[in-house]
């Protein structure tokens, strides 16, 4: 990753941590798909219009994925205390004040809008989560009008012909678990100048049209399930499809949207399905997954029997020692993060943010504690530790995942209900073929 324009950022914490956050994501996620990541220009005024599935995972994606520094709009209540305000500002975050957060007036947002204008004039990207809230539902909500007001207000003052709004869609397989699969899609720019004549004639109408066009673009870049009652069925169908079409293990990060488009087509087919075929498919799918649960195995290990091969067992044997070292180094932070996420975090949208944040901060603290000791012992030990620590911790996570898959696949191969499960799965696929054309 080349951070050639990171010097444009005024946040010193942002400048230091962004490359390390990128490394953290390569361990947190099993697979990253970032499509058209160069679609965010570094020499033009840019507003990013994004959906917002998670609390902090999405904005951090933008920070390390795009070349120009990204400034993220964040809810204003986090900025109430001076210390937290300073930390957030140094991480390139700025507040928006909403009535739902206890603010009676939006007058102070005038200053926020001026802040956005200045940043765009400085040649950095300003990100606004246009739905106004974070949620893990696989759908695009109605957009808030703030981004249109900022865009037209900036254009009116400065007449920036290149001022553009770029829609970005964030998509996750689960969104609240480690070793997830993420897909970030950058869309085509929407130029504000194309709406200026309409805005002069009818400001409210132009704002509404711009927001409509942004949402239409996001609908092409994001998962979207029209009926909330189909959420569970959609997740099950996506799981079946992914296990029939496993992603390549390496490289972890790919710059393609082919996999997303295939999943998107599946969801579009579900949205278009008639009521009766959908009812039958839901019934078949529920029966299959309930039987899986009672059997104590997952669809992934049932369909990917190769995960239980002796080659993978050999990998587990050879990799045991580096796993053990990495596990010992990372165990305190992973355990603490898991306990906090399980006992303190009530909203799913915050779980992966907590997992990442605790392990990341914990790793930094460990560096700070051990490096002085290492310097006292030997500078060579410092170099070895710095180079190997991230690799060992990441490898311990991968090794644990591979052990789980190996044991699950071995169990599935020998399970007495295997034939019945495969028959039930075949019936689901048949119903799916009938209903989703």
Description:
This protein has 437 residues and is α/β, with parallel strands linked by helices. It folds into 3 domains: 6-224, 3-Layer(aba) Sandwich (Glycerol-3-phosphate (1)-acyltransferase), CATH 3.40.1130.10; 232-297 and 418-435, no CATH class; 308-414, no CATH class. It has 16 helices and 9 strands. Strands 1, 2, 3, 4, 5, 6, 7, 8 and 9 form a 9-stranded mixed sheet that branches. Helix 8 crosses helix 9 and helix 13 (320-343) crosses helix 15 (379-414). The model has no long low-confidence stretch (mean pLDDT 89).
CATH architecture of the largest domain: 3-Layer(aba) Sandwich
Structurally, the number of domains stands at 3
Give the low-pLDDT segments. none
Helix content: 55-70%
SSE sequence, one letter per element: HEEHEHEHEHEEEHHHEHHHHHHHH
Class derived from helix and strand content: alpha/beta
- The total of beta strands comes to 9
Largest beta-sheet characterization: 9 strands, mixed
CATH topology of the largest domain: Glycerol-3-phosphate (1)-acyltransferase
The CATH class of the largest domain is identified as: Alpha Beta
Outline: flat
Q: Note the gap between the termini.
A: 40 Å
CATH superfamily of the largest domain: Glycerol-3-phosphate (1)-acyltransferase
Mean pLDDT: 89
Please give the radius of gyration in angstroms: 24 Å
| Beta-strand content estimate | 5-15%
Q: What is the helix tally?
A: 16
